[in-house]
């Protein structure tokens, strides 16, 4: 597997002379994303989110300190590389190494372990093992990593006993510190009989005496929903405001046709179409009255297949800082700022992928019912 392009943010760790010389020697093109635009590198950012979610889950479940976050992130990455991918049903480990990983040695992070002391450190009298916490897997050898609770030092070993049902950090939080003598005592007969008697008793659950009151949203809520927004094309045509909705729909279609958003073609063999639907909304004024009726044709982009119908999925957005700088410059030079709204601005972008869509409901061309729309411009809903 040869790497052709390497995309990263503008972090200093990717901008050193040594690193640039290294990738240039291998013929790799280094792409950098614009500042403060994590959406431009969506695949890597989503993987970071998955790692952080796993890290947070392991820290919370084991009640461990956030100081161990680096060990948890390495463990989360180790586990993710051994989880099958939905697309290929293979693990990253298997794709890289060529054989299936062994999952029998995976252990619960943060569990109690007893690591056998090596001969130079083991005294003739006293403990033969150190009380530790499992914190991950060694990167340079086939061993586990542990945190010694007595010396607070990380060690690596394979000669250990795991107790995956006990978590020292959680026990410490509850006030219990003794891990070596938990099984050395038995409860007295009086105490055990006392709890057994309590277990056999029937308790009546306590019920709330508060009376439940039906929630009142007010009369305005019901009046507002008497004539709401239609959920479909047919519902818009049969509503009391059908004339307004028809005009809004016709305006949207005229705008799409004048922009040459699609052209009717025969569906090529082996290709599939994505559907579309009408989204109908009422635009309101500040006083709550209706400003206009808005209709928008939206493609069902969730049916698009990655690497077939799309490559990158991101939408550049102006930063608030840039807007503030613009306003400040205008004030300094005593300039006027004009705001402009471009109708269907998103639809001006050209499409380089071949995407086929069903003809819009209510606007199927007579005699060409079997044809589909090949999109040449961007459409709302596409990824």
Automatic annotation (TrEMBL):
Annotated segments matching region Disordered: 185-212
GO BP annotations, alphabetical order: DNA integration
Entry's transmembrane regions: none
UniProt domain Integrase catalytic: residue ranges: 1-100
Keyword annotations: Hydrolase, Metal-binding
GO molecular function: hydrolase activity; metal ion binding; nucleic acid binding
InterPro entries, A to Z: DNA/RNA_pol_sf, Integrase_cat-core, Retrotran_Ty1/copia-like, RNaseH-like_sf, RNaseH_sf, RVT_2, SH3_retrovirus
Pfam families noted in UniProt: RVT_2, SH3_retrovirus
Skewed-composition ranges (Polar residues): 185-200
Cross-referenced PANTHER family: RNA-DIRECTED DNA POLYMERASE (PTHR42648:SF20), TRANSPOSASE, PUTATIVE-RELATED (PTHR42648)
Full protein name: Integrase catalytic domain-containing protein
